[in-house]
TrEMBL record:
Its membrane topology: Multi-pass membrane protein
Lineage top rank: taxon: Eukaryota
Xref: InterPro entries: SQR/QFR_C/D (IPR034804), Succ_DH_cyt_bsu_CS (IPR018495), Succ_DH_cytb556 (IPR014314), SuccDH_FuR_B_TM-su (IPR000701)
Organism, as annotated: Absidia repens
Signal peptide: none
GO cellular component labels: membrane; mitochondrion
PROSITE patterns: SDH_CYT_1
Locations listed in the record: Membrane
Record-linked NCBIfam families: succ_dehyd_cytB (TIGR02970)
Protein's UniProt name: Succinate dehydrogenase cytochrome b560 subunit
GO MF annotation list: electron transfer activity; metal ion binding
Chain segments annotated as transmembrane: 83-102
UniProt keyword annotation of Transmembrane helix present: yes
Length: 182
């Protein structure tokens, strides 16, 4: 279509160009309205084809990202639930592997050594460490209960989803403060 328009535009601007390329001027089409041009097929190496694809990909639109969406409680809490689950589970497995590997590394992990290490730490460090451990644990537990309620189709309308979301956030704050104060 682009080639057709280009040729028609050229012919319209310069009527004598209709005869260009024809040895016999009488054989030149005089009232040509349509011109079918097919691209010349060239065999290309796979590297050249890959380069063409790379060049074309530069001009493709980028897929949507989270930055274009308005932050909503539902997807933020869902993301945090996954993140805290991975963090709590990963910390549990790392602690278990550390406890199992400690004797072979020559490190003593017994109750007396852990109590003396924690007792020597400043109060601010203790509270910060307890908060860092308690917050993801409490959030994941409370949000897990929320998900279990959804599994039995309770509180699934949007009003209740937001209500239970705020309850989980409030419960997380209260539970974290309680566990950090112990």
């Amino acid at each position: 279509m682009l080639a057709t328009r280009s040729i028609l535009k050229t012919v319209a601007q310069n009527p004598s160009s209709r005869t260009i390329g024809f040895k016999n001027v009488a054989a030149a089409p005089m009232g040509v309205r349509h011109f079918n041009a097919s691209p010349v097929s060239k065999a290309q190496s796979p590297d050249a084809e890959s380069e063409i694809l790379r060049q074309q990909r530069k001009f493709r639109p980028v897929s949507p990202h989270l930055q274009i969406y308005q932050p909503q409680m539902t997807w933020i809490m869902s993301s945090l639930h996954r993140i805290t689950g991975a963090a709590v589970g990963g910390a549990f497995y790392l602690a278990a592997m550390g406890y199992l590997a400690a004797p072979s590394l020559g490190v003593t992990i017994d109750t007396a050594s852990m109590v003396s290490t924690v007792a020597a730490a400043p109060v601010a460090a203790k509270v910060l460490a307890k908060t860092a451990v308690a917050a993801p644990f409490v959030y994941h537990c409370l949000n897990g209960i929320r998900h279990l309620a959804w599994d039995v189709t309770k509180c699934v309308n949007i009003k209740d989803v937001y209500k239970t979301g705020y309850a989980v956030i409030g419960g997380t704050v209260v539970g974290t403060l309680y566990l950090a104060s112990l």
